[in-house]
Amino acid sequence: MGEISRFQLGVIGALFLSVASSVSIVICNKALMTNLGFPFATTLTSWHLMVTFCTLHAAKRFNLLENKPIDIKTVMLFGILNGVSIGLLNLSLGFNSIGFYQMTKLAIIPFTVLLETVFLKKQFSQKIKLSLFLLLVGVGIASITDLQLNFVGTILSLLAIVTTCVGQILTNTIQKRLNVSSTQLLYQSAPFQAAILFVSGPLVDQFLTKQNVFAFKYSPIVSAFIILSCIISVSVNFSTFLAIGKTSPVTYQVLGHLKTCLVLGFGYTLLHDPFTQRNIIGILIAIFGMGFYSYFCTQETKKKLSDPLGSQMKDKDGTVYMGLEKEGEQVKNTDKDSHV
After folding, report:
1. Where is the Sugar phosphate transporter domain (predicted)?
2. Number of folded domains that form the chain
3. 205 is in which domain, residue-wise?
């Protein structure tokens, strides 16, 4: 029982750190991009990843991080895939309306469920699916304002969904099957993610904004916000890998929509963004969906823990939930902010 309690505390800590750091960086980036006019989201993300790698490398030099070798081909492909997914998400927002982009984000959960069901043989009960549906409806009501379709934008969105889902599933799978920690995986993959975004970022940003990141006039306040954003990104990147490793890709996406609701609320209270009755209703529905998801997952996991042999026969890989785990396993915001 003590091990379960420690694991629950670890999960709660990972989820709390992920929410707190993500909301913080969204608010910081919103001020940087909207108020200070720095629109280079993809390039900023490459800086985030470089700072994250340098921080972890310093931790390794001071013996605060144990480096565990991972097959270079696996790490390289994983890092490149994650870097490409970030670029595709930013391009998707550039070619689509914000409403259609939000639809793209919402589609990640059902597509992840589909991939895990087909390829990993994981099982999701009807109650879990219903709670996820309720969550998606709520977030959709709260955040989707317009839907404008175009062929190029749709193709980019589909590619972004596929690469994001596969990347997050691999984040969980690599940690489990190779027995590496979240920081070890992040440390070894961050250079490849940063490299592909460092090369492609300025090109993507110039294509989307018609501005050159190297010709931008960096005032002291802009530079200060960029530094602050990079510092917060270390916590964001670490907590993302930690949360996916301790829970599951689906749970992490549920957490991402909680961040969306919090960002809408903070945007209204701190940045005085428009807030309507529709936003309030959507957020409340989404919160109910998250609550049901957490409750049903916890109840099902307790049932499976009481019958471990039956659980293993049904699902060899295991499915991870918010708060507890089965045996054998453990967001861009609504405006034009960067991925981390």
Report:
1. 21-294
2. 1
3. 1-124+146-247
